[in-house]
Amino acid sequence: MSTSTNEPRDLNRNGKIDVYEDPSAPIDDRIEDLLGQMSVAEKVGLMFHTMTFFNSPFPLPLDMDPAHFIVERHVNHSAFFGEGTAEQLANWQNGLQRLAESTRLGIPFTLSSDPRHGAGANPIGVAGGAAFSVWPDAIGLAAARDPELTYQFADIARQEYLAVGIRVSLHPQSDLTTEPRWGRISGTFGEDVDIVCALTDAYIRGFQGETIGPDSVSCMTKHFPGGGPQKDGEDPHFPYGREQSYPGDAFAIHLKPFEVAIRTGTGQMMPYYGMPVATEWEKVGFGFNKGIVTGLLREQLGFDGIVCTDWGLITDAQLMGKFLPARAWGVEHLEPIDRVYKAIDAGCDQLGGEICTGLLLALVEQGRVTEVRIDLSARRILREKFRQGLFDR
Fold first, then answer.
1. For residues 317 and 351, what is the distance between their CA atoms, to the nearest angstrom?
2. Under a CB-based contact definition with an 8 Å cutoff, are residues 190 and 179 in contact?
3. Tens of pLDDT along 225-282?
4. Phi, then psi, of 269 in degrees rounded to 5
5. What is the model's pLDDT at position 277?
């Protein structure tokens, strides 16, 4: 929260404060105490990272209404769109926290955002506003070739995010832009692998510090394992751009910035929409790709943070009157419930931009996804909330 309160929470039925509420208790003990009190529905709610609009000029769909997804669906992670003053954003975020505190266990809310400091004109991809200082976009920072400047930017951006309650940055975008026709180059650090690696490290340290703690904004580094080499320069937001190729057998080079991000301690990782072609990997989008998420990211590279899919892999959507098909590349033939299963089986902890909690609950009820598997992701997600001090402030 952007304002602190030291008021004690209610005592439990035994007249004691629950272990998860005790700041002096070890984090692992707090996590296990809270997990033991959570219903399956509450655990499942953790595994959805939805989106909403601040100061929306039009009625929000039910699944974007915080009063619905926080209270009814137990979802307590959301990206937001829109802009306002620092005071307006802080007050709005505190309202989200009050909604979260009104729920049975009072699990704090985590607000995330795409970049908000760039000078670019994209109102969604670079969502600036009156609350934030203006800096060059990532490609401009790359042009300076100065890791210390990038660290300074990230540290200032971190403080501004904290002031309004944003605790997850849906960036840096550490893709190597080896395909000059790709439309997302401005959000990257360019094509030079050494520069991209150095700036990725500086960026994450500026936002998170040396380790994630109460003053950190967690970085969701994207787009694993490298979204730059898009076939024909098309983008996999769209069906015609779903294929991702690695000409010259350059897969390992595109992976290097993400190896750096892991060593630096990035809290989260986002696989991209694209599905690899002409590689050893299954020809499905990276968010559904068990060889990529579990085999490469988890087992080979040792990443144990949160893996959140890119937005909108599971269900079709309507946004501002426009139809958006699910970016279920390679698994378009599957029903939404089976897409959920494949993403969870791949090793993802959260489904980005989705609110279909009932589908994951149905998978648990059917025995296709075990509660042990749900707990694995819930622990990772709760650990970050505890490390950031959200339960204590």
1. 14
2. no
3. 999 999 999 999 999 999 999 888 899 999 999 999 999 999 999 999 999 999 999 9
4. -140, 140
5. 93
- Rounded Cα distance between 177 and 255, Å, is 12
Q: Is the pLDDT of residue 382 over 80?
A: yes
Q: What is the mean pLDDT of residues 187-207?
A: 98
Mean pLDDT of 302-319: 94
Predicted structure pTM score? 0.94
What six digits make up the tokens of 249? Answer: 């057998």
Axis crossing angle, helix 251-264 with helix 193-208, rounded to the nearest 10: 20
Backbone torsions φ then ψ of 274, nearest 5 degrees:
-60, 150
What is the distance between the alpha carbons of residues 260 and 201, in angstroms, rounded to a whole number?
7
> Based on the number of CB atoms within 10 Å of its own CB, is 279 exposed (0-12), middle (13-18) or buried (19 or more)?
middle
Tell me the DSSP string of 103-121.
SSS-PPPEEEES--SB---
The tens digit of pLDDT for each residue in 179-194 reads 999 999 999 999 999 9
**Which pLDDT does position 61 carry in this prediction?**
86
DSSP 58: S
**pLDDT value, residue 1:** 39
> Pairing relation of β-strands 166-169 and 110-113?
parallel
Token pair 């609110």 is at which residue? 355
For residue 110, what are the β-bridge partners? 77
Neighbouring C-beta atoms of residue 373, cutoff 10 Å: 15
Would you name the residues annotated as active-site residues? 310
